[in-house]
Specification:
Number of helices of chain B: 16
Oligomer: heterodimer
Helix content of chain B: 40-55%
Distance between the termini of chain A: 48 Å
Radius of gyration of chain B: 19 Å
Number of strands of chain A: 50
Structural class of chain A: alpha/beta
Number of strands of chain B: 7
Structural class of chain B: alpha/beta
Strand content of chain B: 5-15%
Chain lengths: ~1000, ~290
């Protein structure tokens, strides 16, 4: 736990986060878990942002809601995060470290302290309107929550359409609300917040495809936007996951996607690339086919931007395994075939012929654009915007704005996908932490608990609380009957009912009953433990009861909600579920969460830009850092870089960075260093290093590790590289350009994707398209007459880089696509290099005699084979480290306490590396900021006498935790065990038990269920 | 009020009924269309193919005349004439040297301040003011037109301010709704009818016209409404031909927007010359009890 501190400082230990999407959530959680109080100010009535509208996410195909709701729940319960919804910031005054914020909150007309989120009001409300969340595909009520998993789940009344507000009638919601939560007199409120830093994460709006009526959106019913299609695919959406077209609800067979709708276009659209649409269209095509194998997807595109980690692999899978057809052609108009509702699309085939093809349904891949109020919003916070109305950020510090103390993150900063948003969310938290580190802990709320009662000598005295949940359970299940039945069960000394067991007053009642009946086990028969278990556990702890003496029976989601047509059977089932819960409750015994001390020093492996920034990220917060670099010099690959495409001087930056690191009192730099061993677990690691040419042995104890081992430019074997001096890589070209050599090159050919997107390395190296364009523009600057030919497969100038591609074309740089099956052919000539390739538009072979041939060589990770086995970290087949979760934990490694950043993770730009380094530092701070770590009590334990050392547990553990100890038996370190239970299930000798899920604690439920049957 | 009026060659010849209808209908809403004196051909498609200077100079002369004659606005019903004149005006605005050069040759010199309006623009002002609705004596109930704008009404070969949505114009629909008709959305609103290719490449043009017809028929429209005399001529006079060629049984009358306005105002068939179309155009109106 973070401790509360009181410190003499002007700086506040709290942060304002504006927005409520996944980026804002990540920032808030990282900050709150590092000792800062967080205020979230969210415009909508719930947090969630864009991610909650998605069905599945790429490239894993995980369900979006399943991934984000745990984060939402964590946020909602966090003692140090206050969520203010329906709220907007009116004004900001002050300076970094101390801002005064005026917030205006709109009236909700429902009292959040009384509302239990049961939803009856929404069910009974007669007034309907088009649902914004369902993108107009279905309706919502005047009293509503944005989506079923909304947080807060308090409903809100839309007064613009509410019948009572419009003509004084109805009030059905008030009539049916058992909690008396409707508040017609609500006027909203205005209040002030005093915070140390501001994080802006309001996200982006989406392009309105109706701006281009020739595409048929809003005209032809079977043309939908991509976000509508997400809702169509979603099991909780208007068609419950059946893929149907809105016009006639037919199951479409031929479905077409049109890419770049609203993006990469200055006319009635936005000139930037929205970064995610190529991938989401691929995902939608694959998911649609998963739902209905008869669907034949076609994606019409200009360039497929699959530039992220493993994205090309994903697209290849779509092509090869799913048969998704990718057609390189843009559609200018979508016509409807009258009568059938089908859509006619005309496009040019590669040979130039015009084809009219008919599709059943068309999906428009719409892009992002700034909110309509972007300019006003920026003014409120005093930050500057660029020409496109995105916040202006320095090229090498993408989360900083023009106003110190105000940071930006997520898609608000620029279009990006979920992993990058999560990374930037952490990065921004890191930035704020560095600013406010001296104020850490000054505003946190720490739970005070009474001492725990010792119940080990007592017989179980079980209290059963059966919930009505308004009418959610009670309208189907006879809850009074269930309580009466529970009273007859063994060890039950109290059984009763509540209208809403989770409400504040029910908690007070429960505390009184615990005292009165001396209860030492609690069973709640209500809804899902996933959402409500912690509430009841808190109440128990407040009474001095160990929180593991708790069991829940879900008689709502698993009973009344799914058996609403058969109330008698539903009641019987409720009885059975309670019987099972009571049986288990009797077997429960207290469990204790161990506290382990944390060594508050960090170890950073790798002294490149990533490693150095990560080290500074920690050191600026006053943590000690040891930075280990295997070479003699710091800097890594950046030593070879010259300038970024925006024109920032990398050498200057690097020199400054190295000086900052070497001068920093908290950073110890070890160069010429080699890691030879690594032991320990989160909070307590020990690493042995051989340092310097004399190989002096050093032993470092530390609490966290950040891996930043970096990457290198691929050394080409193809295209005469190494054989002809006129053939070079982009890095070599940049070096020559900076020295003034190559100024006389009048004809240059560049070949993209060298060493990438092939059998040996199926992935994209991400940086080469912008690198080629950067160098090409540089050549044009010194020699405007130069002829430059760029031979490519897809130009991946994603996000705001698109402007440079447009500029390159404007300056007459020529771009020629080639197929990987028909690559350019290169020949040495006496006075040049001849490059032969096919011009696809003219369908003619071309030969260009070039002064220079520049290969866009990809990125290969540093050789970390030995290091990865010492640190026991997984890498993917290409040698990049594997993070814990592609989407939601992009800088965490599977082993707790180890983090990752930079090109060791995957190829990325310098600015992205810096972001990720800050993110890793922020994540590491959630460890290092505590003096102690509390481990979960739910861990596995081996009974040594029963162990036969068969190694099944060692092999089956996904986290590499069980080890054979000195006695020759398996031992599980509670500090690293994730409590998944796989080892307990696999062990053939039944030597392993998982606490809280011990064998008898599970079997007794089966026995209770089958009582009298067997 | 008086507005300058430029009929162009077509409205004095093959589409003279459009001229008659325009004058009559605008009269009803208090606009006196005053034909400008000594106007010349706008150059249409031909001038631009021969000489860029001529393509600007020809319509420019008409602008000069209209301005010198004291008009603040000039309305041009034909889409091609309207397009050429509007483009010329913008070109002269962007290129003062060109304007000077042309003005040297003219007696009635161009200022460039006159408002060049299409027939829809003027009608829409009357819709906005409510005056058109006032003059409606019978609602065009039962009429389900598809509004055909043709390629020129919203697409210009130069950057001019377009008064309607380029891809999905709504001008005719707005007027027709005030008249009580129910215009239908369809897929070929701004598609080419073949235009003058009907003369030199009849097959290509007939195919284009047939496509337009097929969609209108499939949507169960009962007529076309147009503003462009070229489109009207093509879709009307060639309708038997392209329908027979493509096995389309139905025939749809092709009305000018002005006849619809006149009809709703209670002006007679004879005065509006509705019986002068190639495709039989009065039966439908009789069936709907509009005449």
């Amino acid at each position: 736990m973070n401790e509360k501190k009181s410190v003499e400082t002007n700086k506040r230990g709290s942060v304002l986060v504006v927005g409520g999407g996944v980026g804002a959530m990540q920032s808030a959680l990282d900050l709150a878990n590092s000792g800062f109080k967080v205020h979230i100010v969210q415009k909508e009535s719930s947090i969630g942002g864009t991610m909650v509208m998605l069905d599945k996410t790429f490239p894993t195909g995980d369900c979006s809601m399943c991934m984000i709701s745990p984060k939402m729940v964590e946020l909602g319960r966090h003692l140090n995060i206050d969520i203010h919804t329906l709220a907007e910031v009116e004004s900001v005054e002050g300076e970094p470290g101390n801002f005064t914020i005026k917030v205006k909150q709109k009236p909700r007309y429902v009292d959040p302290d009384k509302c239990t989120g049961c939803g009856i009001c929404e069910e009974k409300c007669p007034k309907k309107t088009s649902s914004e969340y369902e993108q107009g595909l279905t309706v919502r009520k005047a009293i509503f929550s944005l989506f079923p998993q909304a947080l807060p789940n308090t409903r809100a009344i839309d007064r613009d359409i509410c019948i009572y507000f419009k003509n004084g009638k109805c009030k059905a919601c008030e009539k049916f609300c058992d909690a008396n939560a409707i508040d017609w007199e609500d006027t909203g409120k205005e209040f002030e917040l005093n915070v140390g830093a501001i994080v802006l994460s309001p996200g982006l709006s989406r392009y309105d495809a109706a701006v281009r009526p020739e595409l048929g959106f809003g005209r032809w019913p079977n043309v939908v936007s991509s976000i509508q299609f997400e809702r169509i695919l979603s099991a909780s959406g208007p068609y419950q996951g059946t893929v149907m077209r809105p016009g006639d609800k037919k199951h479409p067979k031929k479905v077409a996607w049109i890419q770049c709708v609203g993006s990469r276009d200055s006319h009635n659209a936005n000139p930037w690339c929205s970064s995610v649409c190529c991938m989401y269209a691929t995902k939608q095509a694959m998911t649609a086919k998963d739902h209905d194998p008869d669907i034949e997807p076609t994606i019409f595109y200009m360039d497929i931007r699959a530039f992220g980690k493993d994205f090309d692999k994903y697209v290849n899978r779509a092509k090869e395994e799913y048969g998704v057809r990718y057609q390189r052609a843009m559609i200018s108009a979508v016509r409807e075939e009258a009568g059938s509702g089908d859509l006619i699309m005309r496009y040019a085939a590669p040979d130039g012929k015009l084809i009219d093809e008919i599709f059943d349904m068309v999906v428009l891949s719409i892009g992002f654009q700034p909110h309509a109020e972007a300019v006003e919003f920026a003014k409120t916070f005093g930050i500057e915007l660029d020409a496109h109305h995105f916040p202006k950020t320095p090229p090498l510090m993408p989360v900083q704005t023009t106003r110190p103390g105000v940071y930006v993150t997520g898609i608000y900063q620029g279009p990006k996908d979920i992993p990058e948003t999560v990374m930037q969310g952490s990065a921004v938290a890191g930035g704020a932490m560095a600013l406010l580190s001296e104020a850490r802990g000054t505003e946190v709320v720490v739970k005070e608990q009474p001492p725990e009662k010792d119940v080990t000598e007592e017989e179980p005295r079980i209290g059963v609380f059966v919930c009505h949940c308004g009418i959610n359970i009670a309208s189907v299940v006879d809850v009074e009957g269930v309580a009466a039945y529970a009273k007859t069960l063994p060890h039950v000394v109290y059984a009763g009912n509540d209208l809403f067991t989770c409400s504040q007053d029910s908690q007070e009642k429960m505390k009184a009953l615990i005292a009165e009946h001396r209860l030492n086990r609690i069973v709640v028969s209500a809804c899902s433990p996933k959402t409500h278990e912690p509430i009841f556990q808190d109440t128990m702890e407040a009474c001095g009861l160990n929180k593991y003496l708790f069991e829940m029976a879900n008689i709502r989601n698993q009973d009344s909600w799914v058996h609403s047509e058969i109330p008698q059977e539903a009641t019987e089932k409720a009885n059975e579920l309670v019987r099972m819960a009571v049986a288990r409750a009797a077997t429960l015994h207290p469990l204790y969460e161990k506290q382990i001390p944390v060594n508050q020093r960090g170890l950073v492996v790798g002294g490149g830009v990533a490693g150095m920034n990560a080290a500074l990220g920690l050191a600026d917060q006053d943590f000690e850092v040891v930075l280990v670099e295997k070479e003699a010099e710091l800097g890594g690959l950046a030593n070879r870089l010259t300038a970024t495409i925006e024109g920032a001087d990398v050498r200057d930056y690097l020199d400054g960075l190295i000086k900052k690191v070497t001068d920093h009192p908290k950073i110890q730099v070890l160069t010429n260093a080699l890691i030879i061993s690594f032991t320990g677990s989160q909070g307590n690691f020990t690493t042995e290093i051989l340092v310097g040419p004399q190989m002096v042995q050093r032993k470092i104890d530390h609490g966290a590790v950040i891996v930043a081992t970096g990457a290198n430019e691929y050394q080409p074997k193809e295209y005469l590289y190494g054989e002809n001096p006129r053939v070079m890589t982009q890095l070599e070209l940049a070096e020559r350009l900076q020295k003034g050599e190559a100024a006389d090159a009048s004809r240059v050919v560049m070949i993209q994707c060298v060493g990438s997107r092939n059998e040996d390395n199926p992935n994209c190296s991400r940086i080469c398209c912008q690198s080629a364009i950067k160098n090409a523009l540089q050549i044009k600057k010194t020699n405007p007459e130069a002829d430059i030919f760029i031979l490519y497969r897809d130009i991946r100038t994603y996000g705001l880089l698109e402007d440079y591609y447009a500029e390159a074309r404007r300056q007459g740089i020529l771009f020629f696509p080639f197929d990987p099956e028909d690559p350019p052919v290169v020949e040495s000539l006496e006075d040049g290099v001849q490059v032969s390739f096919k011009d696809q538009l003219l369908d003619r072979p071309l030969k260009v005699k070039a002064d220079m041939l520049v290969l866009s060589a990809g990125m290969v990770p540093e050789d970390t084979e030995e290091l990865s086995s010492i640190l026991k970290l997984a890498r993917n087949p290409e040698g990049f480290f594997m993070e814990a979760h592609v989407k939601l934990r992009p800088v965490d490694m599977a082993t707790e306490g180890i983090f990752l950043c930079g090109t060791a993770h995957s190829p990325k730009l310098l600015s992205e590396t810096i972001s990720q380094a800050y993110a890793a530092a922020a994540r590491a701070t959630t460890f290092l900021s505590r003096t102690h770590l509390t481990l979960s009590a739910v861990t596995a334990r081996v009974e040594g006498e029963k162990c036969a050392s068969c190694l099944v547990c060692v092999r089956s553990c996904p986290y590499n935790v069980p080890k054979i100890n000195e006695e020759g038996v398996s031992e599980i370190d509670a500090a690293t065990c994730h409590g998944c239970g796989i080892c307990a299930a696999e062990c053939p000798a039944k030597a392993i038990q998982l606490s809280w899920y011990e064998d008898d604690q599970i079997i007794c439920k089966v026995d209770a269920l089958l009582e009298g049957v067997l | 009020m008086d507005i300058g009026y430029y009929p162009g060659c077509t409205l004095h010849a093959s589409s003279s009924l459009y001229d008659v209808q325009s004058r009559r209908v605008f009269n009803e809403v208090g606009i006196n269309l005053k034909e400008i004196e000594d106007w010349n051909c706008c150059g249409a498609t031909s001038a631009g193919k021969v000489d860029d200077f001529l393509a600007i100079a020809m319509p420019a002369r008409n602008i000069g005349i209209a301005e010198a004659d004291g008009f603040s606005e000039i309305v041009i019903p034909c889409s091609a004439c309207y397009s050429r004149t509007l483009v010329a005006q913008k070109r002269l605005e962007d290129d003062p040297l060109l304007k000077k050069e042309i003005n040297t040759e003219l007696t009635k010199k161009i200022q460039g301040t006159i408002k060049v309006s299409s027939i829809l623009e003027v009608l829409l002002t009357k819709v906005a003011s409510g005056e058109l609705a006032e003059k409606v004596s019978q609602k065009l109930k039962g009429l389900k037109p598809v509004c055909y704008y043709g390629c020129m009404q919203t697409r210009f070969p130069y950057k001019v301010p377009v008064p309607d949505d380029v891809e999905n114009p709504q001008g005719m629909e707005t007027v027709l709704k005030v008249l009580g008709a129910k215009p239908l959305d369809w897929s070929y609103k701004t598609d080419c009818c073949g235009a003058s290719a009907a003369v030199n490449d009849e097959e290509a043009a007939l195919n284009l016209m047939a496509r337009i017809m097929k969609d209108a028929v499939a949507r169960e429209a009962n007529c076309f409404v147009v503003t462009c005399p070229m489109c009207q001529l093509n879709m009307d006079s060639f309708q038997d031909q392209f329908c027979e060629k493509n096995e389309i049984k139905e025939r749809l009358p092709v009305y000018f927007i002005t006849e619809m306005v006149g009809l709703a105002m209670g002006v007679s068939v004879a005065e509006l010359q509705i019986d002068r179309h190639f495709v039989e155009s009065t039966e439908l109106l009789k069936e709907l009890n509009l005449i």
